[in-house]
Automatic annotation (TrEMBL):
The chain crosses the membrane at residues 6-23. Keywords: Membrane, Transmembrane, Transmembrane helix. The lineage of its organism: Bacteria, Bacillati, Bacillota, Bacilli, Lactobacillales. It comes from Ignavigranum ruoffiae. This is YvrJ protein family protein.
Length: 60
């Protein structure tokens, strides 16, 4: 039992810190994923707009 207490005393703070940073990192990854999805949509819209403009230019 004393060994467990020593382990917690020695490694408790680093473990808590890692858990905290992992939680923050996960949130940032979710935000980045959302932004990448939106960016992909915007690029697709721009590409579609350019295709329409090119078709109109060729058709004239």
């Amino acid at each position: 039992m004393e060994e467990v207490i020593n382990l917690i005393a020695n490694f408790g703070f680093p473990i808590a810190l890692v858990i905290y940073f992992l939680a923050r990192f996960e949130k940032k990854l979710e935000e980045l994923s959302t932004l990448l999805t939106h960016l992909s949509w915007v690029i697709e819209q721009i590409s579609d707009t350019n295709k329409v403009k090119e078709r109109r230019r060729i058709g004239k």
